[in-house]
Every structure is written in structure tokens, then in C-alpha cells.
Amino acid sequence: MDELKIFVTAFQVIKCKAAVAWEPNKPVVIEEIEVAPPQANEVRIKIVATAVCHSDLYHLFEGMNKDGFPTVLGHEAAGIVESVGPGVTEFQPGDKVIPIFLSQCQECHLCKNPKTNQIHQETMSAVESRFTCKGKRVLQFMGTSTFSEYTVVHQMAVAKIDPAAPLDKVCLVGCGISTGYGAAVNTAKVEPGSTCAVFGLGAVGLAAVMGCKAAGAKRIIAVDINPEKAEKAKVFGATDFVNPKDHDKPISEVLTEMTNGGVDYSVECVGNVQVMRSALESSAQGWGVSVIVGWTTLHDIAIQPIHLISGRTWKGSLFGGFKSKDGVPKMVKAYLDKKLKLDEFITHNMTLDQANDAIELMKNCKCIRAVMSVSPQ
Fold first, then answer.
1. pLDDT of residue 67
2. Whether residue 269 lies in the annotated active site
3. Within a domain: residue 329?
4. Which candidate in 75, 154, 307, 348 is catalytic?
5. How far is Cα 164 from Cα 277, in angstroms, rounded to an integer?
């Protein structure tokens, strides 16, 4: 980044382009917004690339929370630090970074506990928006709002990454890939030689397949109702593909028969309560572990208690169990060391002006990841 430009803009309001969601269930609008300078403990980031994640769609189309608008969506991105506010010592202008929706203060009792990646609620990064548009305050989605040329994020929600990292690839580490991969490796703790089933083959599910393979699973059954996902799943390590629509019995029965009693590990990456139950019932009685990754707040879930009493373990996973500021740089390094696939997830390269097209691709299951170029590096 040009050092003179950094100096000139450091303490100023920046006018830039952003995709503003003015209300739910409506197309986003490319607008000129104002981005205020970072305040104490905040970092202003020039977003280079951002991807569309289903969580963006959930807020826009399913969450139906009118109080969450107007907003700028986006939370899976990478960029370059433009300026920092008072009290920020970890970052400096020119650093390559990934903003993260899950903060890590590194000081509260939860951050210091190796058993969780959660953060104490009172310590969560500030949610006050630095965006305005047409005289109105525009909310920052998940504290990040990366469908914008510039954004301001609390330093607890930013991870510094290797300067050699290609931002249009590693942006995926900011949510989906870490979420799925970590669900298998960190939360399920898949063991070598085990049998796994992954439900839902979007980016998160395919990353879970990749995590199962990295952990040494000998059999990985990919489950999806879209037959076009079969070949893609094999790229990431799946050994079998099962389409529930091809069978006249519950998918849990199909998998139980295929594996002589159920899989050792199942990972649900859909966000559907019926699929969550099916994933649990597909795991082996006595020791099976099932992990819920898919997000929904629309429905409660019901199960037969015997499925747990008989020895199964049911777990949830947020951001793949990674402590964000620690885990993200490691995932980026794994990619640079060719131990992690990222390029293979990207099916569409677009621009911020095409935000609505990218959203429609995701909404209609026509892409794995659409990455939008936002600003030049």
C-alpha cells in the first residue's frame, strides 16, 4: 500500500464504496458510505477481497430481524491495515490481516481456557458502527462488514497474517474453511483409521471433509441432496457419496447399514434441525460423536433420549473451535505450506459491484465460494 496515502487518510473520514443492505429480503445497493477513523483499540482496514457466506444470506433472508438494518454484510475477508487508533500496538499500517467475527481478547478467563474459543460477553469487541450513508448510521454486521472498501474493526477481532499470503485466497479462512475444518480436527477430534460422515457439502461441509482426511480418517462419507457435489467432495477426500433422495429409508439407517453400526464421527453442516438429528442417529451407538456446525435459530430440535443414553456424544462447534487470533495465522501458514486447500473452494471470482449476483449464486446453491475483489492490493 502507498505509504503517503496511508499518512494522508489516517485521521480522516474515508468516503468509499460499499454494498448496503437497507432492509431484509431486498437486494443490496452499491452506495458511497463514510467510514470514520478508528477510535481507541480499533483498526481501519482496506478490504482487498471478501467472499459470500451463508451467514450473510441468513441475516438478509432468514433471520428477519428488522433491527439489524441498514447494514453492510460480509465477514469472510482479508485486507491491509490502513490506520490504527490509540492503544493499538499489535498492528501497523501495511500489515496484511483477516478480520474475524469471533473476538479473542487473550485476557479473560475464557480466552485463557484451552477448552474453549469463546470470549467473555462483557469483553466482546465494541459494536458501535463507524459507518454512515446518506446521513444515516449503518450497522456493522458481525462487527466486521467486509462488503465495503474500508471497514473498522476492534483489534481483538483482527488476525495478522503472513505478508506472502494471497488475500483473494486466504480470505476464506476468516469463516467457512476454518469452521468446517476445525469442526473435524478440533471439535470432533477425528482419529486415524476412523469412519466419518459429513452432512451438507457447501464450503463448510467440504472443509469438514478435508479436516477428516487430514486427521487420518479411512472412510469419509459425504452426504448431500445435490448429486453435483459428489465429484467436488472427492477432491477434498471423500471416499463415498450418498444422496438421501436416492433411498426410501432414513439416511441414518442407510449409513448405519453401510458402516455396520454407524460412523465414528458425523458432522452436520446444513443448519437444519432434522439433519442434525439424522447426523446424531448416524453415529455409532456406544462411542459415536456427532458435531453440529450449521447455524439456525428458527426451530428447536427434538431427539429420543436413548440416542444419548446409549453412549453417543453430541457437540457443537463455533468457528471450528479455533481461538481466532491464534488459529487464523496457523491456517494461513498451512495453506502457504500446501497442507490446506483453498483455491479449490473458489468457483466464482467477481467484483463488489456484482454483490447481488454473488448473493444469488449462494442462495441458489450455484457456487461453493464466490470471492469478490473489493480494492486493489
1. 82
2. no
3. no
4. 75
5. 43
In the predicted structure, residue 377 carries a pLDDT above the cut 90? no
Long-range contacts of 245-254 (CB under 8 A, 24+ apart): 250/278, 250/281, 251/223, 251/278, 251/282, 252/278, 252/281, 252/282
In a domain, 307, yes or no: yes
- Give the Cα separation of 238 and 307 in Å (integer): 26
Identify any residues that bridge with 199 across adjacent strands, giving them in sequence order. 223, 268
The single residue listed with the C-alpha cell 449409513 is: 255
Angle at 112 between CA 107 and CA 116, to 5 degrees: 125
- Tell me 243's DSSP state: -
Active site annotation includes 75 = yes
Q: Which residues contact 253 (CB under 8 A, 6 or more apart)?
A: none
Q: What is the pLDDT of residue 120?
A: 78
Distance CA 363, CA 58 (A): 10
Strands 219-223 and 240-242: parallel
181 close to 320: Cβ distance less than 8 angstroms:
yes
Return the pLDDT at 64: 63
> DSSP 3-state assignment of 169?
helix
105 is catalytic: no
Note whether 305 and 184 are same-domain residues: yes
> From the candidates 16, 105, 111, 175, which is the catalytic residue?
175
User: What's the total number of domains in the chain?
Assistant: 2
pLDDT confidence band for 5 (50 / 70 / 90): low
In the set 16, 54, 55, 148, the catalytic residue is 55
Query: What is the rounded CA–CA span in Å between residue 320 and residue 215?
Result: 14
Between CA 61 and CA 97 the distance in angstroms is: 29
Full domain range(s) for residue 99: 1-174+341-373
- For the cut 60, the answer to whether the pLDDT of residue 135 exceeds it is yes
Check 16, 53, 111, 269 and give the catalytic one. Answer: 53
